[in-house]
Amino acid sequence: MAAEIDELWGEDLAPVARALLSSAVRCFAARGFTGTTTRDISGGAGLSPAALYVHFPAKEQVLFEIARRGHRSALAAIDLPGCADPDDPAGRLRELVARFVAWHARHHVAARVCQYELAGLTSEHVTEIAAIRREFPERFRAVIADGVEQGVFTPVDVGRVVRAVLSLGIDLVRWYRPDGPDSPEQLGRFYADLAVSMVSGVPGPAAG
Amino acid sequence: MAAEIDELWGEDLAPVARALLSSAVRCFAARGFTGTTTRDISGGAGLSPAALYVHFPAKEQVLFEIARRGHRSALAAIDLPGCADPDDPAGRLRELVARFVAWHARHHVAARVCQYELAGLTSEHVTEIAAIRREFPERFRAVIADGVEQGVFTPVDVGRVVRAVLSLGIDLVRWYRPDGPDSPEQLGRFYADLAVSMVSGVPGPAAG
Amino acid sequence: MAAEIDELWGEDLAPVARALLSSAVRCFAARGFTGTTTRDISGGAGLSPAALYVHFPAKEQVLFEIARRGHRSALAAIDLPGCADPDDPAGRLRELVARFVAWHARHHVAARVCQYELAGLTSEHVTEIAAIRREFPERFRAVIADGVEQGVFTPVDVGRVVRAVLSLGIDLVRWYRPDGPDSPEQLGRFYADLAVSMVSGVPGPAAG
Amino acid sequence: MAAEIDELWGEDLAPVARALLSSAVRCFAARGFTGTTTRDISGGAGLSPAALYVHFPAKEQVLFEIARRGHRSALAAIDLPGCADPDDPAGRLRELVARFVAWHARHHVAARVCQYELAGLTSEHVTEIAAIRREFPERFRAVIADGVEQGVFTPVDVGRVVRAVLSLGIDLVRWYRPDGPDSPEQLGRFYADLAVSMVSGVPGPAAG
DNA sequence: TATGAATGAGCGTTCATTCAT
DNA sequence: GATGAATGAACGCTCATTCAT
What we know:
about 210 residues, about 65% helix
């Protein structure tokens, strides 16, 4: 069950450390970072309270590892070599949104931690995660700006549309359930269509 | 500063109780429910730690009051008598989205608590708040289903579109800043256009 | 109900002060001095928390008033002009024990406070109450020593017998219930007989 | 000092847990259950406030352990194989009273907690302790009823006499001091004689 | 006289973390 | 590597008491 969580940790970590991270993800997602005790985490991995400190120097470091590896995994997912024609902005946007959304749906538990629990990080670690996070709007901006430039997309406010598309992908971690009607890929395709519609319609009547 | 928060509390509460709720909103939004101490709340209102308990029986009740009054305020905001022509689904959808988004932007601090901190409630209170929350998708569903039925909107998957529109309005509490480029109303109009475009475009190629 | 408690307070106290003392007696007896809050006391008299301080300067003073008036009442009860023949030590002992026991049974709620809650007093007040308490063994000692001297009683160890008789009268506050089989007077007569038997039998085989 | 307290805890408890129980006994006896703080208990054992919770889940459980082990110890003390001739009710009563009294005198500090602080227990624990407590009057009733039946004792009201004998043994925890004139065994022998005299004298004149 | 609001001190308990084993 | 015991620093909450009204 919930094998998706374990996929996020690399082979560089000891199995026990990976089990602790997986337990922590489940705890943080369910009760939040401050609402989770170190006993919850180690207990969820079948270990004693002190065991956590054999593998991580502090609770905050556990969150940081989750955030770092989670964000890298998401970035890698959207940066996979694409199948779309580079000269087809709509196809590229569709692929990008589908991947972004599918990753968040598949990893909705870990993603909830990555999106909502960063306040538990030290400011140094926030900075480090923020550097990765900046890449996501960048990817969307590139594709959309391309399409607008080529005249394929409506001349939208790129920043606003990027925010909207990101919101669709992120907010689903709040409500997505794997036993619901949509698989991660189905939801990805649906949101991909919505994204394209956002840059295809006639511009709205003087928004702003 | 942050006078929007105080707007949420009715005249039935003593001024000190309102000040405590406002302080609690700021604390919960910044550090989460479990990350906030009762001393934070009372201190934020310029009171001693024990003062909180003169006005509220427990920290959880403070959260509940915020959630209850916050949700009611949001519902009242979208249920205001409309200016849109009842026979114009697009106009009605635009108005509904604009109001929903503008409320969340204007009250982004309190809204963050209403959207992300409900895990701190007792299960009884969760049930009570959930009853109010169910009204929001209902409002969107009614308008969109109407438009689809009348043939004005594309025959979209209503449930999915409702989720997407709600996500746009909700996720903005994560990133909206009042000193950013958009006023609550501007953002509302922009998202209203996006919502209309979601139900107006040609249906995507076999999504799902 | 429990009108016996009200009998203990003199006319010198305002009715509200008497009601507070009665409430305090019930609370202290049920939950102990430290286990009782000032809110319990004032609430039990139908008053607000602050009302207690209109009539008493502190919670400890309430206990002190109870202890002082309670002990004086008990002493007055055994010091009532006697009906027994002064030359009949057995009759005098019987009367003394009967009165002591009956008072403790009738006032078992207040007596529980007087016997078990004195640790809540300041040391000054302990001294003051101890002065009254010394009178009780004194009364018993006088009668028993008299009987022994006159050769009417067995030559018992007076101090030990006094302790035993006091114990009988005091310990009943732990278990006496007014709806039990014995009225205060019946119990008094029974214990009076026991006391007489203690000083009448053949001395035990080398006790001590 | 006060090595008698430590005798009450079995070998099944860790030494630190036993030290905490001993400290708690001293605190509860001196200041009552509600008057004792958990810091008093752990501090009395030379430990930090949090240490108590390594060994006991709550302050109430500490009281319960004391009450359970104390009552069992007292019951075991009177249930020791007897030296008295089974056909000699007076001898058996003497032995029973002597043991009951000596236990309470020797363990007067713990006994004070067992006799006066049970109000601090949860109702479940009260029930559990009450089941043990019922055995004590049962033991006395058996012997006295036996003597009355055999015609060796005066035909007394057995229930009343049992109450009186128990009161002698219990009330001494209120006043007994080990540096007083009587050793626990001396006091036991004296009270044994008193008990026998209670069932040996001529019945009092119409008590009740 | 009576009270609602307020508070400093403290209570039972929890928690992240340490350390000897 | 793993743990049971221990702890300093809180935390949510309560309490005796005060005071303006």
